[in-house]
Amino acid sequence: MSKSNTIPERIFTKADINFVKSLNDRVFRNASKQFVAEGSKSVLEMISSGLKLERIFALETWFKTHYSLIAGNCGPTIISEKELSRMSSLKSTRQVLGVFQMPQFRFEPSQLKGLTLVLDGLQDPGNLGTLIRLADWYGLENILCSDTCVDCYNPKTVQATMASIARVKIHYGNLPQMIIASNLPLFAAVMKGTPSRNIAFPQNMLLVIGNEGQGISDEILKLKHQGITIEKYGEAESLNAALAGAILLDRYFGQFA
What is the pLDDT of residue 8? Predict the structure, then answer.
């Protein structure tokens, strides 16, 4: 590959491929405190949002256009489309792949303001990614996740967030303990509850959404809560977690508009 006269290039090795691919594994991600983002929009937004860029691999044409935006963050590695496709976890290879340091957040119950999403056992990376993106859209600062939730730094989740993961604080832990520590009203999305249109939401509250197949765990439902449901007028059996979250978020914010 020809080198650019203006871009200081790192040498690409087989170890780079092995390292990036190893970040597909949750255990290795957590040990290294690093994750992968792909695509120009996601990589550039994460950099502009302040996430620490550890490594960046891209086509030379991409660097020629964007190098001034990433210069000083880390040394670039210019690679070919074939090399990029070997590293990518996506079916359609993008022009750039970035390795970022995971942001570290301390859970502070007293800092939970407005609506806070609480996710109990979500397993679908796309659902989690969409909910993170929704949280960013509505300006939510925090999301609480049970330890049984899919990892928010799963490559599919990161892709679904469209860089919103850089702007929302996501806390994993013992969900009942975090809920109790927050001392906020708990609203649980269930199939049989009070119609959401009939609820006067408090300004500060928790909204829990459960597992795609099993719903909210008994451990959470044993806590003091208000069950709410989205009114059904047709024959669909259910709504997926992300869609239910979107409707309930809009109901909440519509009340305070």
Answer: 59
